[in-house]
Amino acid sequence: MLTDIWALALLSISAIPVALAMSVVGTAVKVLRNWDHGSDSTYQIQLESRIYLTSALVEFSLVTQMMGVGVMVMGADHFSGILTGAMCATGALTANSWGIPALCIKLGLLFCSLAWVTLHRLDLQAETFPLLKKKYVLYLLMFPVLIIDLGLTSLYLFNLDPDIVTSCCGVIFDQELRDGYNLLGLMELDLLLPGYFIGLVVLMILNLLLINDFRVVICYHKYLSIAVIIGWLVLYIASLVVVTVWVSPYVYAMPHHRCPFDLVQWPYALVGLPLYLFLHVGCGAGLVSGIAMFHDTAQGLFGKTKSIGKIGGYLAVISISGFASLAILVVLKYLLSGGE
After folding, report:
1. What integer best gives the mean pLDDT of the chain?
2. Where are the domains of the chain?
3. pTM of this prediction?
4. CA 81, CA 155: separation in Å to the nearest integer?
């Protein structure tokens, strides 16, 4: 399996950030220990000349890492045609005990990488690099996770065995528990949906309040920024659950078939791809907006990050509204066409 083109792509996307990190970690530690922008020593000048290259390498490696989720899902969908019993990416990811953890790590790294790139772009707005140490602390925290990601991806691919019978999404996401082997099987829609849509509306309102500097929230600017950042991350996870247990059965026109991965297969991709695009753009832009507004009052950045925060905030609200509207439209279309 390791010679498969998708396996090589997955390994490359996980290995590139780790390989580049080996040449960056040393500089990151030196920055945290010795950085002094007010100094004109030879060491400080040399350090300043190095951070441009290292930051560019980190940005490239993390942008590469952000593609890992998509490649993982598409690769697993490809592997499902090889593995016995697998109908889609669900069966391929659960073919051994490493697939789901590898995907979860990649999802976490997706947003951590976006946060780092955002901090980097904000940092370049000021000549004093006020966020330099913060972004390198984040990178050093991410470094062991990048190694874990490479390890889990390698273990997943190495242990894929076409001769082992795996389960399909009809079992994994079934509404009933089957010997305890079930994901999201006991979700109560009566509680999930009202809570989800109320939370979505509240989060959009908070983000709009944040980016428009309403007087009522100016005193709580930092706290509101943190709440918005956490809110978009929580909403992303909740949205994946809603897509799986509520939206997907209506897309397939099969009330008992629930799977988030079949949505990338034809012809369901006509709905699934726009749905996931809206979701990822919305939550990603919301995260960028929260980070930008949080640092609006940082030294050297006062007023410079607000435009990024506003663009991100409006894009997040528009995109997540598109996601919710498309999800509701899919359900209504099915019900109005005579479905139950």
Report:
1. 85
2. 1-167, 187-340
3. 0.89
4. 20
